[in-house]
Amino acid sequence: xxxxxxxxxxxxxKTASNPKGGGxxxxxxxxxxxxxxxxxxxxxxxxxxxxxxxxxxxEGWDITWEQYQEIWEGKWHLKxxxxxxxxxxxxxxxxxxxxxxxxLVFRLDHLRRQSKERPSKKGRKLGPRKPKV
Length: 133
Known about the structure:
The protein is α+β, with helices and mostly antiparallel strands. About 30% of the residues lie in helices and about 10% in strands. The protein has a two-stranded antiparallel sheet with strand order 1-2.
């Protein structure tokens, strides 16, 4: 029996329509890969990234997905990377990520606190950097 070769460009198989093989196929529905609908998928990804970063830095993480949603409820649109956006931070940085040890603050406030309390990795003194001239 001859080996069946799929002609729709399935991952790993080289075909005329997919000469490199592998990767995703244009026009194919991959919605089954994500079980969370719409914007909730983006929020779940944010939660998973925070949890992974905590694990990478060997910090304790005791916040469930439901608790994370509760923290950000009604404030998802304020989350971001700008200085006036909100971010989730710990109250006591020596402690783990728990519901009682986290709060939402503006990123600018978080960065100011971080520069005062954490030493730089280059061994310089504590505190904010000098302003650029």
